[in-house]
Amino acid sequence: MRASLDNARRVFRPLVALVVALTVGACATASGPVYPRHQAHSAWKVEQGRVVDVDPATIEGRRTAVGRVGGGLIGYEAGRTIGEGAGSRIAGAVGAVAGAVAGSAVEERATRQAAWAITVEIDGGRTLQVIQPDDQRFAVGERVRVYTRGGQARVGKI
What we know:
Oligomer: single chain
Number of helices: 3
Distance between the termini: 67 Å
Helix content: 40-55%
Number of domains: 2
């Protein structure tokens, strides 16, 4: 009985630590759009135009070592609880691989962002489509500003 309780603790401690870390990280808030650090103090070309189409989109999530390693550790610990001796080690290795794959997929899914594909007709005739997070809503016919720099673009309200 004591051994199974120790195994359960070994499995759930990393899981609890991961849940706590994700919860604390999700509590941070900011007002207005959030921009990457490298975009601060940068000059952007600003043009005006009219929205001609808005479609929902999704920005893919990240796949970093955090998801793979975290999932691998949890899978390893869960797998080691199966069997004894060499069987336990083999199950731990299989669990680690499966956990790493699952952890990577979970991280990618958890970090996806809802977005808009906004098509804008720039004053003067050019047309641009910009994919950006759905932090603002746009309507067809609405006048907007388009900020561009080095292949990057963002649509903002006037």
